[in-house]
Structures are given as structure tokens and as C-alpha cells.
Write a structure and sequence with these properties.
The complex is a heterodimer of chains A (547) and B (696). Chain A has 547 residues and is an alpha+beta fold. Chain A contains 12 helices and 20 strands. Among the domains of chain A are: 211 residues, no CATH class; 165 residues, no CATH class. Helix content of chain A is 30%, strand content 23%. A 7-stranded antiparallel β-sheet of chain A has the order 2-1-5-4-3-6-7, with helices on both faces. A 5-stranded antiparallel β-sheet of chain A has the order 14-15-20-17-18, with helices on one face. Chain A has a 4-stranded mixed β-sheet with strand order 8-9-10-11, covered by helices on one side. In chain A, strand 4 and strand 5 form a beta hairpin. In chain A, helix 1 crosses helix 7 and helix 6 crosses helix 7. The radius of gyration of chain A is 23 Å and the shape is globular. Chain B is built from 16 helices and 35 strands. Helix content of chain B is 29%, strand content 27%. Chain B is an alpha+beta fold and 696 residues long. Chain B folds into 5 domains: 136 residues, Rossmann fold; 127 residues, Nucleotidyltransferase, domain 5 (2-Layer Sandwich), CATH 3.30.420; 85 residues, no CATH class; 110 residues, Dna Ligase, domain 1, CATH 3.30.1490; 66 residues, no CATH class. Classes of the chains: A alpha+beta (547), B alpha+beta (696). Chains A and B meet through helix 1, helix 6, helix 7, helix 8 and helix 10 of A and helix 4, helix 7 and helix 12 of B.
């Protein structure tokens, strides 16, 4: 076995390159726009025990998922063989998120020994269940949210299990999309497995395995070094939610540990806004990584100092068979809760609150030109919070998403057969400070055919993005449905009917500000006015500037 | 061509303006063979054209005697990265004024909560809207209303705008609204620099197209001024026809066309090298080439299959793992670039990990060995210490290597790693090589190409230093380092055609009648190409076309290009679809039964304009001893230290052969030949290195 640091570094770089290659392969071949355009997907490599060693680009919220999936597969199966591919989507079988997210995982063997796993997760457009797109705010049990795949083999030693494949496609309203996406995922894990085999052959299995574990140790060291530089103690926060419930968190930081206590929280929801314990852990991992080491890729070691305490049966640790379709809004609340709890104490590491919702928007209907069914599944862009010395970013994806792309209006109009009347910055007041929050988004869809539907779930609508150091809070996320008979404002609907010429107007929040608005640089205020973000009256009122 | 028959002597000149130096290579071909002259002078900002005139003078090239002058310049990329363009006003469709600022919303540096989104090149108050809409099919949905235009232009004028960009929704499908806005802008504001998106690209995605248009407007006055002065300066000195300008698509274009839409020059530097690689591949019967260009600060690579470079429109500047960057939707040679060159700095992070690049020591202070005060160790320093570069013949003998500085810099790196300076140097070489191997894999293995079917062609100042190690790792067929590798890009420019790439988005199913519809799209693009070329005096007979269709399975997004031969009819559709399946399966390991659709076309139009013809020299004696100049110990990192034979590059003649371990050095570059390698010199003086085939 080689312990030469250069060899280990080279193996680590190659693992990263492999995870990226798996990502690129999936992206280019997927059928659903949620995968290839929005990139609601992730790829990763774990060691033989399912500990994450490297992950591809994509979205941070998926990085901590794949190790948990692989570990669940290992726990369930004792006949793992070369050429096998497993599939899971169920949070009680390592699926972590919701049933739409299919995880494909492949064991990598060399000379008969299991040396690693490659895995891939992606949001599939429809996996059955009570509503098109599989997500319904009406669901009260996971059985209503689609087909449950409890960590089963889909390919046995290279041979596709057609029975499993048929069951999966037969349960989808969009079987062609699903089949294309599953094959894209299989191609991705296979390409990764081939690269890892070559790597292990070249450097020797022992060196290959050692490289992975040594980088995990390195990740742990990095995290601990940063923990030492943070304020130690316990920090608590209670925050009211849009629906009136109150969430609590207590974070304890010491030299070796970062403990997030989420036990004191409401019982699980009867509806689908719950998350699995694994899901809550993933959110804490994301904040932890951003706090300790945002620069280097994450692996198992990066998260070792983190402990998450949850109470089974609570909204952050739902019991089977709870509905979990809209888990992402619950997860993003955990993420923001920890962030907000610590921001006043570590402001140099944490900006003010961002729009902090996935703003998941699901629109469907019949394409008027092709007659085919279309489904839009998209998170929205929104405004980010300011920090000392800088205004927040306008219109980027939430902290949950990363290398995620919005859909161009030109492509949306062609693909979905609706009109995008406008896509522009949200100029509503909100987020003013010495440094302003970034602008949210206004996006208008005009429906071109009858029998369309809208499902959407936004949080941070009433309880708005939180400011720091005396600035104004953000403006809030919502959407409007504009019909001839009137305009309705919502933040949560399921299966709302839409017809020709109805307009769905998405408005995402401006980020929160940082610092006293009266201290804003007058030049910056004048530029805000010139850019149409601020009226002269408001400039006088809020910033005390102008005539 | 006529000229060849009439003239006894033909002089072709390539000039290339780089960040530090302006290069010249002149090829004089006559009855008694070819003479190559090179010269180098300092680049002369901001009057870059002066440097070109200087280098011609230094090389004793009289512009009056030049038959064909090709010119490559970094003026566009510099203006962009240094933000030294003009103030731009943007006119766009009502409801889409913020497209430029919304961009795509991605956050590549996703754990970084202080990520900074790239700032748009046009601020909001200079982004104006006009009512009027097209559909994605190119039908008018709402009439264009230009009544607000005078007020918009007055506003621009008051704000000091010097160039107007126009980008309307769905203009790729129907250009008439954009044409109307452009005409009205020109009528209301005669003389202003103005450009509409359809003049640059006919592809969809409004952010990418708008940003491309804005960036083109941003650099247009700067580039046009530069090219104008260059043309004038050269013509005043007797040049008979305007220079041709190197483009990012591996072709050259007329000076007039480049001045109108200069953004297509953005990556002209690397393009000429990769084109040279393709042309050289044809010359030496190696149509499948992995091309690698290692310079001072970066290494760039590209894959050439069947003699064809791959041209794409998915190009971004300033994009990295840390930033979303800015898209430029123009035809650019498909390449991967990494911050790994001869001047790349080696550093050790807080956790004892060794890295190489992307920071570079540049020309000043340069590697520690330059003795100009550089204290940081670079790849070049590591190569010197290991004996790979000759410390007594550094930079062709022009610089005395400051070995004390090199050793101090490497010792400092070693101290942080807990190893001695030699091990530090070996580590630097291995990390640098690994970075480059990963880049080469991105353009080859990651796209389903087997590197064993390819020849690695390495050029640029640092190409030969690393090529064999990389070639061994990738198990390529063989490694070739071209003659005069350090000025290879200039040679590539001499081999370029007048070339334009037309990308047009057009959705089409592959059902009955599709043949005619698809043929119509190509025919229309070809007619447009003929028109523009003819207007510039290019004869129809000189023109040739290549047609690529961009296909995908229905519902997918990304497309795969398929070459289509000849006129398209329904009878040909089956073959086209089968070609798509095959190409797709090679790249992605599987195929589907799903319906296939066309998303657009890529038409390549080209005409030969005074290309260089290479004549092989007769192969001489295999004995290489006339070029042998001694031996020295060379550390091969992974293969240990060997006493290597040293050859003087300029003295190697066609037909010579020898075995590794060896070093070939000339004034511009060093080639490291590993043990077990066998070297032969071909009829064009290129160095061929067979891996693992030396006589034992």
C-alpha cells in the first residue's frame, strides 16, 4: 500500500473528476427538464461501507443523501454482487427525501472485493400516487405519494430485472420520461463504477481504499480546526412559522462537537410537510459545512463533529407512514432555523436571511401545439440576504440548490406551450438596510389551454426573511392566480384548475438587509432610485436621503 | 489556385498579439523550398497595432511583399476581462429588461453563503423595453411598437452610451422585429455602434443570446478601432490586401466581418493551435488527435476526430467552480482549459496538501529561476531541478537560471510537506501531470472516446515537457511534438480557411416530409453564407459546406451532432436517425426506442484563402549522432533518475531515430523522452515518440 501523499491527492482528484463525469452523463441524457435543466440531481461516490467520499456538482441538499441510501442498501442485502444496481426512493429505506427522488446505487468490485459504491439521485417527474407529479398537499400517508421502492435490485449481475422495471414504469403517469431518466441514472453509476475499477487497478485496492479514508480524516480535521475558531456555547431560537406553529432549535458548539437539538418541536404534520430524520440531518450538515469549510468538497469526515438530536414522531423525524411529499419546505425551514439561530453570533460567516423557500411550482396541462402532456416542476429564484459590506445577490436559487439553472422563457414557451409574459426582478419594498437584500423574481405564466393545474408550496410568505443589525426584513414569497373574475393570492395550493388566459404570477421574496438603512451610502441610494428599485419618497422615509 | 502558378515566391505571415509578446512567423515558399522566419517583440498596449508593425520590421518582412497576412489578437478577450469596453445600452422585449441580471440563477460555489453573482455588463437603468412579441414558432403575437424608441435613445445618449445592443425574445425564429429596431436605431442615431442578436446567433435561450449581444456591443468600438488602425498601418507600408483575422471557430474571417461582430474573436488564440493540430494530423496520417497546448499560465486541450475539430456554442468566460461566469454563444472550438502551465505556482494549503496553479508567476517576476525576485516555486522550477530543463541552456540560453532561487523556493515547499526539495519537485510534476490528465480525460474518455485510438499532439512552450508522461498514463497510440512547437499556433493560422459556422435553432420531427423541411433549413443557411461570401469577393467555386444536424430523443434537452452528407430527403431519414443512435450510444452507453427529433442545424461554410502547402523532405540517415550533444542525469519522477542523451532540436533531421531516456532541447522548448520510448523524426521534422517500444 502506498501512503505517498501525492498519490493520495491524485486519487482524490480523480474521485472528484469521476463524480463530475457521472453528473455530466446524467445531465445530458435525462428526459425530464427538472433533471437536465434545473439539475435537481446529484452524484456521489462512497466507500465500501457507504461513507461519502466524493460528490459531483449539483445541489448541496443531495450530497448528504447518497451515503444514507447506500448504507440502507448494505443493511438490507447480503447478496451484493458485481454488476448489481439497486434502487430506492423511500425515506424509511434510505431514500431520505420523497418518493419522486429515485436513488440508483451500484457496488464497485475489484478481484471479488467490494471497494466502493457509485450513486445517483434525481427528481423524477411522476412516480404514481394520488396526484399528477406525485405531489399533493392533500396527502396524509406516503401511500398516496407514489410507488415505494424499498431498496431493491433493479439489475442483477448485469441483467435487468424486467419485472421491477415494468412495475416502476407501469406506476408512472409519464412512463417514457421515467424510463429514460432511470436509464440515464444507470448509465451514470456504471460510468462511475468503471472509472473506480480502473483507478483501483492502477494504484492497488489497498491504496485506493486508504486514499478515501485518509481524505475523510482530513475532512474531519478541517472541520474541527474551524470549530475551534467559533464562539463556544449554547444558542437557542424559537421562530413562528407561516401556519402559526413555532419551531425551536438549540445549537451547542464546543471544540469537538456541533450539536443541533431539534427535539423540542411540534408533532408530525397530518399533511405532507414532514421530513425524515435523515432529511433533518442533511440540512444541519449543509449549514455546518458552510460554516466550517465552504471551499473544499464534502465527505463523510466533514460532518463527523456534527450531532443532530431529533424526536421520533415530530415534524423533523416523521414516523412511517407519514406523508413527506413537501419535505423540502420543512427541510429548508430547519436549514434556515439553524442559520438564523447562529447569525447574530457569527455574522462574519452568515449573511442575513434569504428568501429561503424552494418555491416549488408544479404546472401541468396539454401542450396546445403538440397535444402532449406537459409538466413544469421548478424551484424559483429569489433574493439573498446582505452582509456587512455588500448587498445581497438578486435572483439566485435557495441555499438548497447550487449548480441549478432556471428555464429560459424561450424554451419554456416551446416545451410547455404557455406564454411567459414577464420574467423580471421584484421591485417591491423590502430588505432595505445599510446593505440591501437582493431582489426576488416576478415570473408570469399565461396558460394557453383548458384543463391545466397548479400545485405550489411556498414558505416565508407571512414570516419574512430576517434582517441583521437593524435593517428591514425581506418582502415575502407568494403567487397570484389572475383570472377574469379576480386575482387570488396564495402560498400553498394543490391541484388548482387553470384555463386559457389565466395567469400564474410567481413573486419571490427580496432578501433581508444588513445594518441601519440610514447609514446607506447616499450614492447607492441614488442608484437604487435610478434603477427603479426605490421611489424618492421611500428614499427619504427609509434612508433619510434625497429631496 | 492561380497565385501559386503566377508567382515564383509566396510570402505568408502570421502575427499574433499576446499578453506579453507579439509574435511573427513568416513562411516564404519558392522553388527552392520553404524558409521560416520568426520574430518576437513586446506587446504595446494600448496601441497594439504598433507592436505588429514593430515585429514585422524586426523580422525584416516588407508588408509590400506579403501575399497573405493572418492576424490573431487577444484584444477582445482583454477588453472583456479588464472591462475596457464602451458603455452599452440594451433594448429588449417588454417584461424582460432584467434577463441580463437574473441570468440562470445558478450558484456553483454552493456551500459558500457569500457567493457573489456576476454583475451584468449593462446596469438596469440602461436596459430598456419595447412592446411586441414573437412566438417560438416565429409568428407575430403582438406587433412591435417603436414609439418609445426616441426617448430610450435620448436617455442612452445622456448617459454616455456608445453602443446599442438589441435582443428580443424568439428572434432566432423570426428576425423581423429585431431588424426593425436596428433600422430605427440607425435612423434615429446615425453612426452609433449597434448590433442585434440575430446578427450573431440564431439559437434559443434569451439570457445567453442577450449577454452575447451585449458583450459584442461592449467590445465592438474598441476592436473596430484597433483593426482599422492595423489595416491602415499595414496598407501604408504597402500591404496589398487586408489581413485576415483569426476566429474562435478555427477559421479566419475578413477584417470587415470581424470589425462588425468582433465577439467571434474571443478565443482565437487557442483556436489556431487546435486547427494546426487537425491539419498536421491529416498531413501525418493521424486523423484522431488529442491536442494539448501548454503555455505559461494554462494548459488547453481539445479532441479531434477524423480530422475534424469540434465547434460548439456553449462557451463562457470567467466560469469556474467559484463563479457562474458569462456565456458567449458564438462558435468556439470545444476545449478544456486549466490553470496549469510552466509558470503555475506550487503551494501548500493549511492542511499540508500540495497544489499547482491556477495562480501563475507570469512573465514578471516569473519562475524563481528567472532571478527577477520570484520566490515562489513553479512547474518550470521543478523541471529545472529535476534536470528535465537544461539549467545551462535556460530559455534557449537567453536567461541564466538562478538555481539558488529555484532551490530555495522548492525547499520552502518541501518544508511544508515534510520532504526534501527533490521530492517536492517530483510532487509538483506529478500533481501538474495529474491535473492535465484529468483535463484530457474530460475531452476524451468522458465523451466515450478511447484514448488508445488517439495520438497525443503536444505543443506550446511546455507541451513536450509533459507529453510523454501524460501519453503513458492515457495509453495513447503515440506522442507527436511538432517541429517548432513553440510557434505552432502561428503555423495553424497559416493552415486556416475562411470559415463561418452557422447555428440555427429549428425544431423538426423525423416523420414523412421532414426531409424537405430540414433540407430547407440548410439550404437557407447556405444561401445566406453564399451571399455574404460573394459580397466579399469570394468565388462560388471556392466555397464548400459541411452539414451537421443537432438531434436528441424527444423530451431530452441536450443534443448530439450528426454529420449529414448531401441533400436531405425522406429516404435519408432512417440513416440519419441510425447515425444519431450510434453516436449517442457511444457517448452514453445506451440507446432508446424513443422518437428522435432535430433541434437545429450547424452549417460550416468555408473557402480556401492562400493556405500553405507543406512539402515533405526526403528521409535521411537514421543515425542521430550529429544532433547529439551530451548526456545528463534526468529525474523522471515515477521512473527514477536516468542518464539521458541530450539532442539539439534544430539539428535533428528527417529520418533520424533514437531511444529514450533522452531530452530534445531547442531555443523554444524541451521534449522529455522517457526510458522505453523510441523517437523518430518525420519528413516534416515532427518528433514521433512511440511509447514502450525502445530497443532493449
Amino acid at each position: 500500500m502506498s501512503n505517498d501523499p501525492i498519490t493520495l491527492e491524485i486519487i482524490q482528484n480523480s474521485l472528484q473528476a469521476t463524480a463530475d463525469e457521472m453528473f455530466a452523463a446524467m445531465r445530458k441524457t435525462a428526459m425530464s427538464s427538472i433533471i437536465y435543466e434545473v439539475l435537481d440531481m446529484g452524484t456521489g461516490i462512497t466507500d465500501a461501507k457507504g461513507r461519502i467520499a466524493s460528490s459531483g456538482a449539483g445541489i448541496p441538499a443531495f450530497i448528504g443523501v447518497l451515503d444514507k441510501s447506500v448504507q440502507a442498501i448494505i443493511a438490507k442485502h447480503d447478496d451484493i454482487r458485481a454488476g448489481d444496481v439497486f434502487i430506492t426512493n423511500d425515506p424509511w429505506y434510505g431514500g431520505v427525501t420523497h418518493l419522486n427522488d429515485l436513488v440508483l446505487a451500484m457496488p464497485v468490485f475489484l478481484d471479488g472485493h467490494l471497494i466502493a459504491w457509485t450513486a445517483n439521485i434525481a427528481h423524477n417527474s411522476d412516480v404514481g400516487g394520488m396526484a399528477p407529479g406525485s405531489l399533493s398537499g392533500e396527502a396524509t400517508e406516503i401511500f398516496q405519494e407514489g410507488l415505494r421502492l424499498p431498496a431493491v435490485k433493479i439489475i442483477k449481475e448485469g441483467e435487468t430485472d424486467q419485472a421491477v422495471m415494468d412495475i416502476i414504469t407501469c406506476n408512472s403517469r409519464m412512463p417514457d420520461f421515467l424510463l429514460g431518466d432511470v436509464w440515464a441514472a444507470i448509465a451514470s453509476v456504471r460510468i462511475g463504477a468503471r472509472r473506480l475499477e480502473d483507478m483501483a487497478k492502477k494504484y492497488g485496492t489497498a491504496t485506493f481504499v486508504h486514499a478515501m479514508s485518509s481524505f475523510m480524516d482530513f475532512g474531519e480535521e478541517t472541520a474541527k480546526a474551524e470549530l475551534a475558531r467559533m464562539p463556544h456555547g449554547s444558542f437557542e431560537l424559537s421562530e413562528e412559522q407561516d401556519d402559526g406553529r413555532v419551531y425551536h432549535v438549540k445549537v451547542t458548539i464546543n471544540a469537538d462537537e456541533f450539536i443541533v437539538d431539534l427535539r423540542n418541536n411540534p408533532d408530525q404534520d397530518v399533511g405532507p410537510t414532514n421530513t425524515s430524520r435523515d432529511g433533518a440531518v442533511v440540512c444541519c450538515q449543509m449549514v455546518f459545512k458552510s460554516l466550517t469549510d465552504p471551499d473544499t468538497p464534502a465527505n463523510d469526515g466533514s460532518f463527523r463533529p456534527l450531532k443532530v438530536l431529533t424526536r421520533e414522531g415530530s415534524v423533523f423525524h416523521a414516523q412511517e407512514p407519514a406523508a413527506i411529499g413537501f419535505y423540502f419546505e420543512t427541510e429548508v425551514r430547519v436549514y434556515d432555523l439553524v442559520w438564523r439561530c447562529l447569525a447574530p453570533h457569527i455574522a462574519e460567516r452568515l449573511p442575513a436571511g434569504h428568501f429561503s423557500s424552494i418555491c416549488g411550482t408544479f404546472l401541468g396541462g396539454i401542450h396546445p401545439d403538440t397535444g402532449r402532456q406537459y409538466t413544469i416542476i421548478e424551484p424559483q429564484l429569489g433574493g439573498w440576504g446582505a452582509w456587512e459590506g455588500r448587498d445581497g445577490n438578486p435572483c439566485i436559487f435557495s441555499g438548497f440548490h447550487g449548480e441549478t439553472f432556471n428555464t429560459p422563457a424561450e424554451i419554456s414557451e416551446a416545451r410547455n406551450g404557455l406564454y411567459v409574459d414577464r420574467m423580471e426582478l421584484n421591485t417591491e419594498p423590502g430588505g432595505e438596510g445599510q446593505f440591501n437584500g437582493g431582489r426576488g423574481l416576478v415570473l408570469e405564466y399565461r396558460i394557453r389551454t383548458e384543463s391545466g393545474f397548479l400545485t405550489a408550496a411556498y414558505t416565508r410568505s407571512k414570516i419574512k426573511p430576517w434582517a441583521l443589525e437593524g435593517a428591514e426584513e425581506g418582502s415575502g414569497n407568494y403567487f397570484e392566480v389572475i383570472k377574469p373574475e379576480g386575482t387570488e393570492r396564495h402560498s400553498f395550493v394543490t391541484g388548482l384548475s387553470l384555463t386559457t388566459n389565466d395567469v400564474v404570477r410567481v413573486v419571490s421574496s427580496c432578501g433581508a438587509g444588513y445594518g441601519d438603512p440610514k447609514k446607506r451610502d447616499p450614492e447607492a441610494v441614488l442608484l437604487d432610485i435610478k434603477n427603479g428599485f426605490l421611489s424618492k419618497e421611500k428614499a427619504r422615509l427609509i434612508h433619510g436621503i434625497g429631496g | 489556385m492561380k497565385r501559386k502558378i503566377e508567382m515564383v515566391k509566396t510570402v505568408r505571415v502570421a502575427t499574433d498579439v499576446g499578453g506579453t509578446f507579439t509574435d511573427l512567423v513568416a513562411f516564404e515558399s519558392g522553388p527552392d523550398g520553404m524558409r521560416i522566419t520568426t520574430a518576437k517583440t513586446d506587446t504595446t498596449p494600448p496601441d497594439f497595432e504598433q507592436g505588429v508593425l514593430n515585429v514585422l520590421a524586426k523580422g525584416n518582412v516588407d508588408p509590400a511583399g506579403v501575399d497573405f497576412l493572418a492576424h490573431g489578437t487577444t484584444v477582445v478577450i482583454n477588453a472583456l476581462t479588464e472591462r475596457k469596453g464602451v458603455k452599452v445600452g440594451l433594448i429588449t422585449t417588454e417584461g424582460f429588461r432584467d434577463t441580463l441580471e437574473i441570468a440562470r440563477g445558478n450558484r456553483p460555489d454552493f456551500f459558500n453563503l457569500h457567493y457573489i453573482k456576476p454583475t451584468p455588463f449593462v446596469p438596469r437603468f440602461l436596459r430598456a423595453e419595447v412592446p411586441g412579441r414573437m412566438t417560438y414558432k416565429g409568428q407575430e403575437r403582438a406587433a412591435l411598437d417603436l414609439s418609445g424608441l426616441p426617448a430610450i435613445l435620448d436617455g442612452f445618449l445622456n448617459e454616455g452610451v456608445e453602443a446599442v445592443a438589441i435582443s428580443l425574445l424568439h428572434s432566432y425564429a423570426n428576425t423581423s422585429h429585431e431588424e426593425a429596431v436596428l433600422a430605427e436605431v440607425r435612423r434615429l442615431w446615425p453612426g452609433v455602434s449597434a448590433v442585434a442578436s440575430h446578427q450573431i446567433t440564431r439559437e434559443w435561450r434569451e439570457y445567453e443570446r442577450s449577454n452575447t449581444t451585449v458583450l459584442s456591443a461592449f467590445v465592438q468600438p474598441v476592436a473596430a478601432r484597433y483593426l482599422g488602425k492595423l489595416d491602415e498601418g499595414l496598407k501604408n507600408r504597402g500591404l496589398r490586401q487586408s489581413p485576415y483575422i483569426m476566429q474562435s471557430n478555427c477559421g479566419v474571417d475578413s477584417l470587415a466581418a470581424a470589425s462588425a461582430v468582433p465577439i467571434t474573436m474571443v478565443e482565437s488564440g487557442p483556436a489556431s493551435g487546435f486547427w494546426g493540430a487537425a491539419e498536421l494530423g491529416k498531413l501525418i496520417n493521424e486523423p484522431n488527435i488529442l491536442a494539448l497546448d501548454i503555455g505559461g499560465t494554462t494548459a488547453k486541450c481539445s479532441l479531434i476526430e477524423g480530422g475534424e475539430v469540434r465547434i460548439m456554442t456553449d462557451y463562457w468566460i470567467e466560469r469556474s467552480r467559484k463563479s457562474a461566469g458569462y456565456p458567449i454563444m458564438v462558435p468556439v472550438v470545444d476545449m478544456v482549459e486549466i490553470g496549469n502551465g510552466g509558470g503555475s505556482i506550487a503551494w501548500v494549503d493549511d492542511f499540508g496538501k500540495l497544489h499547482v496553479g491556477p495562480q501563475s508567476a507570469g512573465a514578471v517576476p516569473g519562475p524563481a529561476a528567472y532571478g527577477k525576485g520570484g520566490t515562489e516555486s513553479t512547474t518550470t522550477d521543478a523541471n529545472l531541478l529535476l534536470g528535465r530543463i537544461n539549467r545551462d541552456y535556460f530559455c534557449g540560453g537567453e536567461v541564466t537560471a538562478d538555481m539558488a532561487a529555484t532551490e530555495a523556493a522548492l525547499t520552502a515547499v518541501g518544508d511544508k510537506l515534510g520532504v526534501d526539495m527533490r521530492e517536492a519537485a517530483q510532487g509538483i510534476i506529478r500533481i501538474a501531470n495529474n491535473n492535465m490528465v484529468n483535463a484530457l480525460k474530460l475531452v476524451s474518455l468522458n465523451r466515450g472516446f478511447d484514448t488508445r485510438d488517439f495520438t497525443l499532439l503536444a505543443f506550446g512552450g511546455g507541451g513536450g515537457m509533459h507529453a510523454v508522461a501524460l501519453g503513458q498514463e492515457l495509453q495513447v497510440k503515440k506522442v507527436v511534438v511538432p517541429a517548432a512547437a513553440s510557434v505552432f499556433s502561428a503555423w495553424g493560422m497559416m493552415m486556416s480557411d475562411l470559415r463561418r459556422d452557422f447555428f440555427v435553432t429549428k425544431l423538426a420531427n423525423m416523420d414523412t416530409g421532414a426531409g424537405v423541411r430540414i433540407e430547407e433549413v440548410f439550404a437557407s443557411a447556405e444561401a445566406q453564407a453564399r451571399k455574404t461570401f460573394t459580397a466579399e469577393g469570394v468565388a462560388q467555386s471556392q466555397l464548400s459546406f459541411m452539414r451537421y444536424g443537432k438531434f436528441r430523443y424527444q423530451n431530452q434537452e441536450h443534443t448530439t451532432e450528426v454529420l449529414i452528407e448531401g441533400e436531405i430527403t425522406d429516404a435519408k431519414l432512417d440513416k440519419i436517425v441510425e447515425d444519431f443512435h450510434t453516436t449517442y450510444e457511444r457517448e452514453y452507453t445506451y440507446r432508446l426506442e424513443a422518437p428522435v427529433e432535430m433541434v437545429g442545424i450547424h452549417l460550416v461554410a468555408r473557402a480556401e484563402v492562400g493556405k500553405l502547402t507543406m512539402t515533405p523532405a526526403p528521409l535521411g540517415d537514421a543515425d542521430a549522432s550529429p544532433a547529439h550533444k551530451g548526456t545528463r542525469d534526468v529525474d523522471y519522477a515515477l521512473e527514477g533518475t536516468h542518464n539521458a542523451n541530450i539532442f539539439q532540436g534544430e539539428k535533428l533531421a528527417p529520418g533520424m531515430e533514437f531511444d529514450g531516456p533522452a531530452i530534445i532541447e531547442d531555443s523554444g522548448a524541451t521534449i522529455v523522452i522517457h526510458p522505453d520510448n523510441r523517437v523518430s523524426v518525420d519528413a516534416f521534422q515532427n518528433i514521433h515518440i512511440e511509447i514502450g517500444s525502445a530497443d532493449k
